């Protein structure tokens, strides 16, 4: 499956970002992380996670 069509579960996003699932849910509910609701669960497009991580980087020091 091409990455342009790949949706991740909350657990997969949490693993990729190295945070808890609750943190991912907070980001989704606050609107910081765009997600699609599928039934009772959420799916996050892979490019949304990459964009969020890239804008979160900052220079230390």
Mind explaining what this structure looks like?
The protein is α+β, with helices and mostly antiparallel strands. It has one domain: Molybdopterin biosynthesis moea protein, domain 2 (Alpha-Beta Complex), CATH 3.90.105. The chain has three helices and three strands. The chain has helices spanning 10-17, 21-30, 46-56; strands spanning 7-9, 36-38, 41-45. A three-stranded antiparallel β-sheet has the order 1-3-2. Helix 1 (10-17) packs across helix 2. The N and C termini lie far apart (40 Å). The mean pLDDT is 91.
Secondary structure layout plus pairing:
Layout: E1 7-9, H1 10-17, H2 21-30, E2 36-38, E3 41-45, H3 46-56
Helix pairs in contact: 1-2
List its salient traits.
Molybdopterin biosynthesis moea protein, domain 2; 48% helix; globular; 61 residues; alpha+beta
Shape: globular
- Structural class based on helices, strands and sheet pairing: alpha+beta
Percent strand = 15-25%
Domain module count: 1
- Individual helix count: 3
